[in-house]
TrEMBL record, chain A:
Keywords: ATP-binding, Cell cycle, Cell division, Cell membrane, Membrane, Nucleotide-binding. One of its GO terms (cellular component) is plasma membrane. PANTHER family: CELL DIVISION ATP-BINDING PROTEIN FTSE, IMPORT ATP-BINDING PROTEIN. This is Cell division ATP-binding protein FtsE. It is a peripheral membrane protein. Part of the ABC transporter FtsEX involved in cellular division. The gene is ftsE. Homodimer. Forms a membrane-associated complex with FtsX. GO terms for molecular function: ATP binding; ATP hydrolysis activity; transmembrane transporter activity. Residues 2-232 form the ABC transporter domain. Pfam families: ABC_tran.
TrEMBL record, chain B:
InterPro entries: ABC3_permease_C, FtsX, FtsX_ECD, FtsX_firmicutes-type, FtsX_proteobact-type. PANTHER family: CELL DIVISION PROTEIN FTSX. It is found in: Cell inner membrane; Cell membrane. The lineage of its organism: Bacteria, Bacillati, Bacillota, Clostridia, Eubacteriales. This is Cell division protein FtsX. Pfam families: FtsX, FtsX_ECD. It comes from Heliorestis acidaminivorans.
C-alpha cells in the first residue's frame, strides 16, 4: 500500500532529515517506527501525510504518487488516513460525541450517517456511555480513545499514530495498544512512531528503526511482508 | 457546495464575530468612518461637478461693440459670430433694448439716466452661447480679436474655481479615504488573525482529517466580508439621513444652488460604498489568511 523509493528530505535550513529511505508497507500490516528523537520519524510521517514533499525519491500511496499529487487533492488523500497524536488534540469546548462527529462534519458527511456512525465508533473504543462528557472530564487514556475514535470514524485505510502512548501510564498504554491492535485486525494498516521499547518488544510486530535519517533496521515478525530490506 | 456546508460557514463566521466582539466593533467602526469619508467626498465631487455643468451650460459671452460702430458694421460682426462653428446661439441686443433692460433692473434709480440727457451710453451687444462649455474661453478671446468689438465678457473664474474646488475635494477625499481605508483593512486583518489563532487547534484537526482548503478558509473570508458590509451599511444609512436633511435645508434657504437630489444619485453612492466595504473586508481577511493560515 505504501512504497518509498530512495526518499530523501533536506529542509530549507539545510537539515538532512531523511537519506535514501526505501520502505514497502503492505496493506493491513502493523508497523512500529522507532529511533531516537530527531532521527527522522516525524519527517517520515509528514511525508506520508503530504505535509512535506521529499527532496528526492518517490512515494506511492495506494497506487498514487504523492510527489506528483496536486495540492488540491491532498484533502482527499488525508481522508484515507487517520492520525493520532501524543497530546490527543481534542477540542475542549466540544463533547466526546462532537469531537468525533467534527471529523465527519468537516469532510461534509451526511447528518444521518454521522448520527449513526459516531455512536458505533464510540462503542468500539469503549466510550459509548461517555458521549456527552467534555474532554477535561475524561482520563488521559479515555481522551486518547476519543482521538482514536476520531481517527477511524471516516474509515481510513491507514492510521498514523505519533507516540500515542507517550503521555500515558504503562497500564493505560497497554489498553490503548490493545485497541490499536483490534483496529488493525479489522483490516486497517497502522504505522506507529514510538519510544516505548517494552511495547514494541511485547507486540512482536514489524519494526523499522530510523537513525540519522537512514533506515538502520527493518525486522519482520509477522507474516504479511514478502520482501525485506534488512540491514543491521 | 452543500446547503449544510453553507449554513456551517455562516454559523462559524457569526460565532467568531461574536466571540471577538470588541475587535469586530472596532473593525466595523473603522470601515464605517472610512466609507463615510469616501461617501462625503463622492457627494461633494458629484455635486460640484453638477454645479459646474449647470453654470457652464448657462454661460454666455457678452460681446460689446464699439459705440461708434455703424449699423452695417454691427450686422457684419453679428453674421460673422453666427457663422462660427463653435457658436450655438447669437442674440442681438441693440443699445435701446439694453437701456430699457437697465432701467427695469435699476427701477427707482433710473433717474440717473435723465442726468445723461437723451444720450444712450450703452453700446450694441451680442449675447453668444457656445455649443460646448469647454470652448467658452477660447471663443471669447477669438471674438475679442474682431475689429470694432470693444470688449468681451463672460463668467470666467467662476467655472475654473468650481472645477479646482472639485479637484481638491477629490484629492483630499482620496487621500483621507486611503489612509483610513488602510487602517480598516489592517483592523479587519487583525480581527481575522485573532480568529485564526483562536481556532488554530480546530484548523489543524480539520487539515488532518482532510477538510478542503476552501472549507477551512470560507468562514474567515465571510467574517471579514461581513465586518466590511456592516461598516458600509452604517456609513450608507448615516450618509442617506444626513444628505436628505441637507438637501431639504439647502432647497428651502438657498434654492438657487443646484444640488443633486435624485434618488439615482444616492443609490449609486450606496452601491459604491457597499461594494467597497465588502471589498475592504475580503482584502483584510485574505491578507491574514495568506499570512497565518497555512492550509
Amino acid at each position: 500500500m505504501i512504497q518509498m523509493f530512495n526518499v530523501s528530505k533536506t529542509y530549507s535550513n539545510g537539515v538532512k532529515a531523511l537519506l535514501d529511505v526505501s520502505v514497502r508497507i503492505q496493506k493491513g500490516s502493523f508497523v512500529f517506527l522507532v529511533g531516537p528523537s530527531g532521527a527522522g520519524k516525524s519527517t517520515f510521517i509528514k511525508l506520508l501525510f503530504r505535509e512535506e514533499r521529499p527532496s528526492g525519491g518517490q512515494i506511492i500511496f495506494n497506487g498514487r504518487s504523492l510527489i506528483r499529487m496536486r495540492d488540491k487533492d491532498v484533502p482527499h488523500l488525508r481522508r484515507q488516513m487517520g492520525v493520532v497524536f501524543q497530546d490527543f488534540r481534542l477540542l475542549p469546548k466540544k463533547t466526546v460525541f462532537e469531537n468525533v462527529a467534527f471529523a465527519m462534519e468537516v469532510v461534509e458527511g451526511p447528518v444521518k450517517k454521522i448520527r449513526q456512525r459516531v455512536p458505533q465508533v464510540l462503542d468500539m473504543v469503549g466510550l459509548g456511555s461517555k458521549a456527552n462528557l467534555y474532554p477535561h472530564q475524561l482520563s488521559g487514556g479515555e481522551q486518547q480513545r476519543v482521538s482514536i475514535a476520531r481517527a477511524i470514524v471516516n474509515d481510513p485505510m491507514l492510521i498514523i499514530a505519533d507516540e500515542p502512548t507517550g503521555n500515558l501510564d504503562p497500564e493505560t498504554a497497554k489498553e490503548i495498544m490493545d485497541l490499536l491492535l483490534d483496529i488493525n485486525r479489522r483490516g486497517t494498516t497502522i504505522i506507529m512512531a514510538t519510544h516505548a521499547r517494552d511495547i514494541v518488544d511485547s507486540m512482536r510486530q514489524r519494526v523499522i528503526a530510523i537513525e540519522g535519517g537512514r533506515v538502520v533496521r527493518d525486522e519482520e515478525r509477522g507474516s504479511y511482508e514478502k520482501e525485506k530490506d534488512t540491514e543491521t | 457546495m452543500k446547503i449544510r456546508t453553507v449554513a456551517y460557514i455562516f454559523r462559524e463566521a457569526f460565532r467568531s464575530m461574536w466571540q471577538n466582539s470588541w475587535m469586530s466593533i472596532a473593525s466595523v467602526s473603522t470601515v464605517a468612518v472610512s466609507l463615510l469619508i469616501l461617501g462625503l467626498s463622492l457627494v461633494l465631487v458629484m455635486n460640484s461637478n453638477h454645479l459646474a455643468d449647470t453654470i457652464e451650460s448657462e454661460l454666455e459671452i457678452a460681446v460689446f461693440m464699439q459705440t461708434d460702430a455703424d449699423a452695417r458694421e454691427v450686422q457684419r460682426v453679428g453674421e460673422r459670430i453666427g457663422n462660427h462653428d463653435k457658436v450655438s446661439e447669437v442674440i442681438f441686443v441693440p443699445k435701446e433694448e439694453g437701456l430699457a433692460n437697465m432701467r427695469r433692473t435699476l427701477g427707482d434709480q433710473s433717474d440717473y439716466f435723465r442726468a445723461l440727457g437723451n444720450e444712450n451710453p450703452l453700446p450694441d451687444m451680442y449675447r453668444v452661447k457656445a455649443s460646448n462649455p469647454n470652448d467658452v474661453a477660447p471663443l471669447a478671446s477669438e471674438l475679442e480679436g474682431i475689429s470694432s468689438v470693444e470688449k468681451v465678457r463672460y463668467g470666467h473664474g467662476v467655472v475654473e474655481q468650481i472645477l479646482s474646488l472639485t479637484y481638491w475635494v477629490r484629492m483630499g477625499g482620496i487621500a483621507v479615504m486611503g489612509l483610513i481605508g488602510a487602517a480598516a483593512v489592517f483592523l479587519i486583518s487583525t480581527t481575522i488573525r485573532l480568529t485564526v489563532f483562536a481556532r488554530q487547534k480546530e484548523i489543524t484537526i480539520m487539515k488532518y482529517v482532510g477538510a478542503t482548503n476552501w472549507f477551512i478558509r470560507w468562514p474567515f473570508l465571510l467574517e471579514g466580508m461581513f465586518l466590511g458590509f456592516f461598516g458600509s451599511v452604517i456609513a450608507v444609512s448615516f450618509l442617506f439621513f444626513t444628505y436628505t436633511n441637507v438637501i431639504t435645508y439647502v432647497q428651502s434657504y438657498i434654492p438657487f444652488v443646484p444640488l443633486r437630489s435624485d434618488t439615482d444619485f444616492l443609490v449609486t453612492i450606496s452601491q459604491i460604498l457597499l461594494a467597497t466595504g465588502v471589498f475592504i473586508g475580503a482584502l483584510g481577511s485574505t491578507i491574514s489568511l495568506r499570512k497565518f493560515l497555512k492550509v
